[in-house]
Amino acid sequence: MLKMKDISSGMVIPRRIVLFLVFICFLFWSSTALTNDQDFAALKALTDGWANIPEKWKGEDPCGDEWEGITCNNSRVVTISLSSMGLTGQLTGDLATLSELQILDLSYNKGLTGSIPSNIGDLSELTTLILLGCGFSGRIPDTVGSLKKLVYLSLNSNSFTGEIPASIGKLEHLYWLDLSDNKLSGSIPVSDGTKPGLDMLLRTKHFHFGINQLSGEIPPSLFSSEMLLIHVLFDNNNLTGRIPPTLGLVQTLQAVRFDRNELSGPVPSNLNNLTSVSELALSNNALTGPLPNLTGMNNLMSVDLSNNSFAATRFPAWFTTLRSLKTVIMERTGLVGQLPAEFFNIDSLQTVKLKNNQLNGSLDIRGRYTRQLELIDLENNSIDNVDVVLGNNFTLMLTDNPYCQRGLVKSPYCSSKLQETSYSTPVFCVTYKCADDQMSSSNCKCAYPYTGTLILRAPSFSAFGNDAYFNELQKSLLGSFVNFSLPVDAVSLSDVSLDTFGYVSMHLAFFPAGQNYFNRTAVLKLGFVFSNQSYEPPKIFKPYVFHADIYTHFEVSESDLCITGNKSSTHTIAIIGAVIGVVILLLLLVCAGFYAHYQKKRANKAKQQANPFVSWDSHGTSGDVPKLKGSRFFTFVELQKCTNSFSEANHIGSGGYGKVYRGVLTDGQIVAIKRSQQGSMQGSREFKNEIELLSRVHHKNLVKLIGFCFDHGEQMLIYEFIPNGTLLDSLSGRSGIQLDWIRRLKVALGSARGLQYLHELADPPIIHRDIKSTNILLDEHLNAKVADFGLSRLYGDADKGYVTTQVKGTMGYLDPEYFQTNQLTEKSDIFSFGVVLLEMITASKPIQQGQFIVKQIKETVDKSKELYNLCNIIDPLLRSSTIALVGFDRFMDLALKCVEEFGVDRPATGEVVKELENIMQMAGMNPDADSTTTSQSYEGSSTGQSFNHPYSGDSLVR
Hints:
Among the domains are: 439-556, Alpha-Beta Plaits (2-Layer Sandwich), CATH 3.30.70; 632-720, Phosphorylase Kinase, domain 1 (2-Layer Sandwich), CATH 3.30.200; 727-933, Transferase(Phosphotransferase), domain 1 (Orthogonal Bundle), CATH 1.10.510. 22% of the residues lie in helices and 20% in strands. It is built from 16 helices and 50 strands.
């Protein structure tokens, strides 16, 4: 054996041992890999408001510490799977920052409530979204339609309201769509050339919409021959109108349920084209016309047409040709005449329910029925004679037929009581009494099982006492668990019943192998097997849904464990354990040096990161560290707390830069927090620029910067909160605030004064470069404040006369001279401001329906006519106002000078301010008066409005 020598001690160490120790240390070292900062921040923000999270989730490294339910790939979180954990809390908008997330499964956590955040559509890599059996409510956001890679969407068994989002139709890869068991209302959305709809889901195989409040007719365009649907479940809704004949075009269908609605009219004659259907339920509607002809549907196992208004029809002969039938339910369907004896020769037939019809004559089933047949219910018909020999497990019910009313004999067939049969897994041994909360498995082992209810949504059998079916299910479950490497020792079934929705339910219990409880990893895997339909049951049990109970027995006391063996074996185990312990200790000592060194480096890194700009210029693109004057640094945790973990309730606006949240600081100050998103159009330079500029400028007509956050990979700016939105919000009517002529003059003057400060009083001067109506904000007194300095430039070289720079700004406001020459001057801001003045006159966007407002007004204006010939262009609110447009001509002259083609022809900022002050005085108003004193109280309110808030940052050239 090759050996190496330890120089300090002279001891010879086998090379294999050295290599083994190096390998162990490598494994140890690799386990300390850090999670991506953004993903870690998102997970912490997401779960800070959750209770009952796994113990490991209190660590600082989700990927390195192997948090249960979290799967990572190259430090990025790709899977969150936390079914049956008993979690409580809400989802927050931070979820959307997990940009590499592919699977999100939070099923079977009833304590998770609230709404789905609207920015969930930002999860561009998401393929699986499962929120089955939680407590979520509110509307399903339209942004779900932006999840282009989504394959599996399961939101069933919650309390969602509102309509089915039409945007789901854009999910071209969607395979599974389950929105059942909610409170969804409205009609079924289909495309119309301008909007998407469910008819566009050509690759989807599952439409599960049962147990909702859907209404309206079923659109014929919902179905087509190009679709691959196998399950169409619209039962237990409020749908009206006819079943569209286009349903018969989807020949891949296997299960169809439209029962328990308000459908009317005849059943489409082409329904029997669906030759692959095994379960058909159209009961409890108001269907009319002839009984549908199902000839050729040779795979049909269960058919229920009960409680409709079909025309009187003799029992169809074609029933005898459907040799796969197990269950026939046709109560109150207008059947007349005598039952053909051949019908009972179908080998698979189990249950026949034909009560409340007009069947008559003699019932002849002498020896013709098979051993599968368990029930024939013919109550309330006109049968007067019976010729039958029954088996032990056979039930015939003839109450309210002439045969039973004659009273000649006491027949067992005349009882109206049906003996209920069910199934429970048999136990073949004597068990000892189990401890509290434990159950005994079929193998007679006491344990804490993982339990839940299995619900069959389109059952093809109704013989609940048939042991063969449930033995098959039990065998299938155990086989699947072996294939999935799950530690399940036994499966028990019990309490099989038919519920009020027409579903078959049964209680399942899965018992652990090797110990008497499951650990968290096993429970998570068990939950995922059912929630994402990995388990494929036999055909007669599909489609299904599983509702798991919360599992709470992850750790048990030592007294609950089974301790066997004598003292000798215990002593041997102790010796082996000691030896193993010594070996492990030696390995850990070797690794301790490496780990100590690593921890020291990590501590130094954490200390450095206390400086918010320690990694400012990691890519060499951001320039020097920002020079700050008075702005406060906020940590991510501080901002997370003051926005309630960036909840949807605090979300007040969005833009290309990211989202804006309303927050309340610890001192009670209300702020607006502008939070960047990954891939936003504003980069580090713009972020730094806005911090530097706003921290050094202070004017009542400029938005005040409170602070910033550069922490956990986040870029956030914290401003004073401006409650009345943007100038555009008011001009467009979104804010509910109506600006009359005097108020518009006041806003124009305030904006001009803010601009004048930047151009003439700031040292060095500043060119804003993005003046527009969305960057002019209105405070509680409707005073104007200029905002968004991300694109601004310092203008300190007076001799040069301009700044040469890349063209940036917003189309429609952009100075044509700057656009052509790349030479930026303060006159570029004047042009943009002139466009804003024209906007205030017309309440129209700068570019609308292909028309540029500057060009349109220049071509229309005629100073010799009333209102300069602009009557058809002026905002109707101004035209209908009782306040005279005093100074309108001078206002228009000023606006037109501001939008001259060449900067030399435009007025200076000071001239603009002076002219607006003169116009205010002409109108009899003090230019320095507060806005609330200039005219009547404005309409609208700063609270309760649904308009987009300012601070949007969507300022780059489109």
